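The step that takes the researchers longest sounds almost clerical: writing a folded protein down as plain text. Below is the pair of lines this work produces for a single protein:

——
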Amino acid sequence: MKNSRQIAFEALYKIFYDDAYSNLALDTAISDTENSKAFITRLVYGVAERKLTLDKIISEHCVKPKPKVLVILRMGVYQLYFMDKVPASAAINESVELANKNGLSYYSKLINAVLHKIDENRINLDEIDDLSIRYSVPQHLINMWRKAYGADIVDSFLPCLNENAPVFAVPNKAVVDADELLYELNCDGIEGEMIGDLVMMTSAFDLNRCRAFENGLFHIEDMSCYEAVKALDIKENDTVLDVCSAPGGKAFTAAGFMGDKGKVLALELHPQRVELIKQGIERLKLTCIETAVNDATVYNDSLPMADKIICDVPCSGFGIIRRKPEIRYKDLDSIKELPEIQFKILETSSKYLKKGGRLLYSTCTLNKRENEKVVERFLAENNDFTAVETKTTFPSPMGGDGFFYCVIERN
């Protein structure tokens, strides 16, 4: 049976060298193990998010190690610097053993020597002047953010990008409010705190073993996304289109604001993602939501005209890098086609909006080319629409993710 470090090693190699998504690689890695899931999760996400910091530390003692050796060194250094409960001797010895188990015995002495030197010559990360290295965020991303939002704002949220992101539970309003949901979670042994309409989880939890979740009392959605849907001012008996719906959180939230009275049409391009939405509908016992496979970039004359439209478009994801750490290492050139796709989805979606209706354009990224610029272009080319509310939120320790939304009204 594979031990926890071997499982983490294999997942990290897939993330770094096979371009695997961290959440999918991790889910696959821990699917067959019941033990040490928390340790494996911490190690995988931690090494992925701290890659630049770890590589800088390693480079002071070792030049261009082979890929598998580098992964083992990153794991060892992360344990030395960021996992206080792991003794230094265990971090080093287990790294050497990991090399031996993976056909890297030739490099075991090198790994042992490098990790010992790193342990003996520790540096204070808080004293590193280079913010890219201190927080493990590529310099080009910091530069883009500072140009768009200013150094003060960017420097204020950089520290929380390597912290655990808060998890928010949205009450199923047909059954419970936030206060009642908090009580039910407490009965399941889960601690939480009410923040407005939501409950922020403040202790460890497993949704698969949570009775309140199984009984459809809530769904998980980030606070920033919830507040964006709330800004649409959805009413009972509205007709709502959610054009990029999976996994369904926005549609579920919309149904809550409607009191499950009216119609929400949750649309998604891929049939398997539609199935995810259906599973949520069934668990929450919502009756007003229907699903369909649909391409959001192509006008579909079979869709109804809507009072409200949720247009949460595919994006670069720079607002959620504390949840998916590998996103921070994206090459900016790899996302240059996104604004055109986003504009196409926005333009197509607007054709379903009734006069006087409202459309929500939103992304979970911090990039003005995908946010303000797309909206500005749309408004310039469609003078029968007006922006009534625009907001950008930045990651915070007790708040939502980085997020942008604009509520647009049809005149």
Remarks:
- The chain has a mean pLDDT of 96.
- DSSP finds 17 helices and eleven strands in the chain.
- The radius of gyration is 23 Å.
- The longest strand covers residues 353-363.
